[in-house]
Write a sequence for this structure.
């Protein structure tokens, strides 16, 4: 494939292509439990034109292309399952435009969450975006390509719902604008009132195109952010607690979590309740409303508010560094999670399942469920840490996660950022006509099946 | 941990999650790992290095010139250890990188630039291949005394002794200290390399020889207190010499200057200028000397300190650390760290970049030229700036 390398160098320049063993080794894996598979080349574009030209070449030569952000989806979504070209998007990291009045930003396809956060804080302190708790090096484009969630998801839905326009390189190499930018200079709508074509790309895990620009909605950044933690030892009460809290329509973020370590947390369910305000008066009003909403649980001795002072600095971080630290609990640099999107009323069953799986496979667990859209669903994370130097433990984690996905599907949930096997399980569960439609869309957009192949790839 | 190759901290290598917090400064404003910024591949980030080193220890990857470049382009600025989210092992990240380089040295598979550096230091006693007799020439005409029984040894190091920019800085600091009554002596042509970069580049044998020679010399001369010009020397004297029984009280010259200013021991007039300050990594991140240089600047009438976006523990390295000042494994071009830093300095509207390290001084001076900004921005070490403000 020497001529391919040369063709890539012609497009990218020497600095933008590698087939050296070190890059091939590194870009063939992610930090999760799936086995690696090497790419043939790695490219790191700096312009949309380069992305286009590489995709055109790949389409002509029928070579796989795998767009990559920071590789932190953990579920092998950037492992080039069939080799080909891994495209590291992170050099395309410019923040192109902020429209303050219309509250949106346009970023390039490799811009990181961290840089957007810093940019807004420096230049538009009245605005914020829905930051996930993923490490800040992870990219905005990747996050919407897998329907991520962030700190504003409780209020405004999935982060992909907050997309306000896209620029996509199609698998055949054409450049396509989606939503209002297809008609004019503004990036305020990804679809409405047009047919919403963004659905052809959002959630497709890079299998239908590569985002070179993403428009993203921004939201008011209130002056004060506060939190409370409500604790109960009864999993069955969690849905009702969430219901009462979301009824207030006052919360920023709401996360229900439990973990066995440190011991002070064991056997309890914690609800971290974030709320914001522009004045102490607003904050105190909201705090009172939150306390009042949960008073009956306190009266019934079913729970209470925790003293949060010691934990507050960590929990107020955005993103929370401590979440990544879970990877070192077994002194081993790894964790992976399955995060089905499911109904909040199923919280007790899912919670029991996590503990059951952890015991069955002898692995360390932690779980954090993020409430979506005022309570229509939640992302229920089933996280298992592992020691990278212990292949047997990694295998147990893999099995536990597979079983978690089977369970989620059985319970009517939707796997989130599923790995290629979980995608297969999902497609096996899917209504046949839905699957047919999925297949038709994929086939039409990507006739040679070059985009992140192995993913969302229904058997013909 | 059993690997085919061994290094002392092998047991933490697999614990890196390569989450990438290490690439950023504390507030995520831009990538803060100079080699990642320069090369743009994840393999050149701290997490990339950790993962590759593991594969290399396992012999999944062989030693190669590219692998060596990945290791040697680390500027050892320490941003990664500060930003890593794993408190139980983050302090050892730089040890892992240093130990892997030492292993490359053992294998004899180091880049030619590094080999030449070692050779020059071991043959000539300095990386410039200059005669030892000329080592003290920087002080000619200043009237500085050889160290006999003064309170402090003023140690200038290889860059201060031989590099043009370094010499200018050494002269300025030496003169200022002696004129303000600080009791200093120098070693002149008796001074030898402190070995800091030798150690960081992985030549542990040569480092030990240099350090032991220095320790012996210092002790023989009755030296108890040292003022260093170069933060790299400060670092090695403070952290590594004690392990070889070389215990001295070590100061950076900015610490002494800040005391002098605080105690009004330097008569000052007024000099109007907007100044930004570049934190040297071995002063700031590695030794937490963040305030003394700023106290100096704030104490100078007419000087307005305007900080760069990345400062203190989040400062962006000039790219000269980890021996790169001599070996230049990071390379030039648009993404050269010093050039990026100069652009950041220009953004502040400052007309002077104040520095406190001869290596930073030279790196940034060159970068100003590469950026064609000589008419707008000038690099001055803190003592040079104090000299401008001093009542003559
Ligand atoms: C500690 C931790 C906490 C986390 N917390 C959250 C959280 O709160 N919320 C959340 O949503 N996720 C979370 N995650 C999961 C994950 O890290 C995020 O979803 C993150 O956004 C993934 O970004 P990435 O850049 O690493 O993506 P990658 O893993 O690099 O890519 C993910 C997918 O996006 C595709 N892709 C990448 N770039 C493009 C592009 N330009 N165009 C088209 N497709 C593209 C890839 O092909 C792949 O399918 C967390 C992960 C960790 C480790």
């Amino acid at each position: 494939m020497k001529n391919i390398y040369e063709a890539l160098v012609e497009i990218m320049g020497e600095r933008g292509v590698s087939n050296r063993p070190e890059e091939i080794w590194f870009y063939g894996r992610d930090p999760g439990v799936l086995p690696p598979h090497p790419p043939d080349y790695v490219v790191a574009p700096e312009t949309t034109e380069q992305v286009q030209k590489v995709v055109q070449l790949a389409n002509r030569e029928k070579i796989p292309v795998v767009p990559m952000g920071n590789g932190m989806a953990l579920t092998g979504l950037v492992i080039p399952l069939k080799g080909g070209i891994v495209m590291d998007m992170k050099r395309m990291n410019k923040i192109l435009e902020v429209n303050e009045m219309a509250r949106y930003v346009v970023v390039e396809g490799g811009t990181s969450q961290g840089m957007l956060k810093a940019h807004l804080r420096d230049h538009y302190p009245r605005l914020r975006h829905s930051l996930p708790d993923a490490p800040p090096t992870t990219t905005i484009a990747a996050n919407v390509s897998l329907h991520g969630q962030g700190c504003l998801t409780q209020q405004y839905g999935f982060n992909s719902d907050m997309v306000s326009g896209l620029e996509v390189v199609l698998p055949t190499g054409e450049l396509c604008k989606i939503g209002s930018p297809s008609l004019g200079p503004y990036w305020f709508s990804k679809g409405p009132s047009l047919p919403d074509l963004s659905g052809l790309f959002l959630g497709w895990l890079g299998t239908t195109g590569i985002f070179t620009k993403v428009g993203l909605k921004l939201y008011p950044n209130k002056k004060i952010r506060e939190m409370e933690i409500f604790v109960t030892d009864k999993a069955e009460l969690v849905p009702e607690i969430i219901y009462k809290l979301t009824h207030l329509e006052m919360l920023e973020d709401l996360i229900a979590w439990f973990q066995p370590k440190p011991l002070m947390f064991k056997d309890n369910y914690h609800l971290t309740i974030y709320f914001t305000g522009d004045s102490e008066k607003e904050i105190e009003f909201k705090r009172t409303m939150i306390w009042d909403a949960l008073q009956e649980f306190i009266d019934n001795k079913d729970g209470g508010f925790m003293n949060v002072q010691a934990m507050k600095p960590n929990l107020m971080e955005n993103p929370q560094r401590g979440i990544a630290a879970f990877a070192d609990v077994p002194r081993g640099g790894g964790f992976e999670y399955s995060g089905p999107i499911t109904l909040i009323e199923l919280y007790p069953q899912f919670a029991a399942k996590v503990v059951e799986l952890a015991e069955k496979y002898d692995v360390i667990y932690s779980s954090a469920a993020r409430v979506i859209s005022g309570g229509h669903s939640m992302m229920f994370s089933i996280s298992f840490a592992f020691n990278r130097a212990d292949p047997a433990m990694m295998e147990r984690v893999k099995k536990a996660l597979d079983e978690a996905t089977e369970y989620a599907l059985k319970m009517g949930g939707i796997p989130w950022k599923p790995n290629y096997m979980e995608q297969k399980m999902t497609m096996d569960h899917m209504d046949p006509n839905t699957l047919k439609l999925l297949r038709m869309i994929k086939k039409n957009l990507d006739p040679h099946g070059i985009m992140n192949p192995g993913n969302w790839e229904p058997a013909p | 941990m059993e690997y085919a190759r061994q290094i002392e901290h092998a047991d933490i290598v697999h614990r890196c999650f390569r989450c990438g917090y290490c690439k950023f400064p504390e507030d995520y404003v831009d990538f803060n790992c100079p080699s990642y910024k320069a090369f743009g591949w994840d393999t050149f980030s701290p997490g990339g290095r950790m993962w590759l080193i593991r594969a290399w220890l396992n012999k999944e990857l062989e030693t190669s010139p590219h692998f060596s470049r990945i290791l040697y382009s680390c500027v050892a600025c320490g941003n990664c250890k500060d930003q890593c989210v794993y408190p139980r092992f983050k302090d050892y990240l730089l040890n892992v990188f240093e130990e892997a380089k030492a292993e490359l040295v053992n294998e004899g598979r180091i880049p030619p630039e590094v080999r030449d550096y070692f050779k020059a230091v071991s043959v000539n006693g300095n990386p410039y291949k200059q005669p030892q007799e000329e080592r003290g020439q920087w002080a000619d005409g200043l009237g500085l005394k050889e160290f006999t029984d003064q309170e402090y040894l003023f140690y200038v190091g290889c860059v201060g002794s031989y590099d043009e920019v370094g010499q200018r800085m050494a002269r300025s600091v030496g003169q200022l200290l002696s004129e303000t009554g600080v009791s200093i002596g120098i070693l002149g042509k008796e001074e030898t390399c402190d070995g800091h970069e030798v150690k960081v580049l992985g030549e542990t044998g040569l480092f030990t020889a240099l350090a032991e020679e220095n320790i012996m010399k210092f002790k023989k001369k009755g030296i108890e207190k040292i003022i260093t010009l170069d933060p790299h020397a400060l670092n090695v004297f403070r952290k590594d010499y004690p392990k070889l029984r070389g215990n001295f009280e070590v100061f950076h010259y900015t610490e002494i200057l800040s005391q002098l200013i605080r105690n009004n021991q330097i008569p000052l007039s007024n000099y109007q200028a907007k100044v930004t300050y570049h934190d040297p990594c071995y002063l700031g991140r590695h030794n937490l000397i963040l305030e003394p240089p700023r106290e100096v600047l704030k104490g100078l009438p007419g000087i307005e300190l305007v900080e760069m976006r990345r400062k203190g523990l989040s400062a962006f390295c000039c790219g000269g650390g980890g021996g790169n000042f001599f070996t230049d494994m990071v390379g030039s071009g648009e993404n050269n760290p010093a050039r990026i830093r100069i652009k950041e300095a220009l953004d502040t509207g400052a007309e002077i970049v104040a520095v406190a390290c001869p290596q930073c001084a030279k790196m940034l001076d060159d970068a100003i030229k590469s950026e064609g900004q000589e008419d707008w921005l000038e690099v001055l070490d803190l003592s040079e700036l104090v000299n401008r403000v001093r009542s003559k």
Notes: The two ends of chain B are 64 Å apart (CA to CA).
